Amino acid sequence: MSSVWVLNRGKCCPVSWPCSSWPSAVKSRLLNSDHLLTWRSAVNPLAKLLEAALFASPRPIPATELAALDPESSPAALQAALESLREHYDVDGHGVELVEQGGGWLILTRPEYTEAIERAQMAVRPQRLSAAALESLAIIAYRQPIGRAEIAEIRGVDVGAILKSLVERGLVEVVARGEGLGRPLLYGTTPLFLEQFALRHLEELPRVDELAIALRREPAAL
Questions:
Q1: Which of 75, 143, 145, 177 could cross-link to 183 by cystine, CB 3.0-4.6 Å?
Q2: How far is the C-alpha of 146 from the C-alpha of 205, rounded, in Å?
Q3: Residue 37: Cβ within 10 Å count
Q4: What are the pLDDT digits (tens) for 161-178?
């Protein structure tokens, strides 16, 4: 548990160690942190690491997987870090909470904010893209502007539903119209695509030859 310290006659004393010499005014203000000069002990580094992993995950992460983040930490240290993180969210009144469910740990929005989020139609923790969607997105990223028919020809299957999903996610948008019959819609990637894939601009996409080399180095599937 993190310690809270107060300034008492020029010295820092932890609240957990009550001092009989504290003036009554100081004691009464212990319940109101707005009137205190407080310090919190440094956040557990392991708790920070766990927070980063949990925030990035769309599913509950079992303790065994979390332990792999820092193999040198003991199970007791891992549990203590999780409890420290949960207490941090609870005590400081964050809008999220750390819960244990589905065989693992997960950071979720607090129930009292669910209605407001749904009212704003915010997509909380969207599911990851399927392999088919990623393949279509890669084609668009490298061949844009490109039409639905050309994407379908490259993939060998209809891509209508996938295109709709990519547009709804904000990763793809209509950028132009083709010159052919019916002037088909042409698609390209969006700024959100760059953000989601940690790119500053499209020129940072790996070259096709680099991807081919990387794929050849991938171990064969069992």
A1: 177
A2: 17
A3: 9
A4: 999 999 998 999 999 998
Distance in angstroms (rounded) separating the CA atoms of residues 15 and 218: 55
Question: pLDDT > 70: what percent of the chain?
Answer: 71
Which string of DSSP letters, residue by residue, matches the chain?
---EEEEETTEEEETTS--TTS-HHHHHHTT-GGGS--EEPPPPHHHHHHHHHHHH-SS-B-HHHHHTT-TTS-HHHHHHHHHHHHHHHHHTT-SEEEEEETTEEEEEE-GGGHHHHHHTT---SPPPPPHHHHHHHHHHHHH-SEEHHHHHHHHTS--HHHHHHHHHTTSEEEEEE-SSTT--EEEEE-HHHHHHTT-SSGGGSPPHHHHHHHHHHSPPP-
Amino acid identity of residue 25, one-letter, is A
pLDDT tens-digit map of 173-196: 999 998 888 889 999 999 888 878
Q: Is 2 exposed, middle or buried (0-12, 13-18, 19+ CB in 10 A)?
A: middle
Query: Which of 38, 48, 46 has the alpha carbon at shortest distance from 16?
Result: 38
45-119, CATH topology level = Arc Repressor Mutant, subunit A (1.10.10)
Both tokens assigned to 51:
């927070």
Q: Where are the domains of the chain?
A: 4-40, 45-119, 131-217
Q: Are the CB atoms for 140 and 169 separated by under 8 Å?
A: no
Q: How far is Cα of residue 49 from the mean position of the Cα atoms in its chain?
A: 13
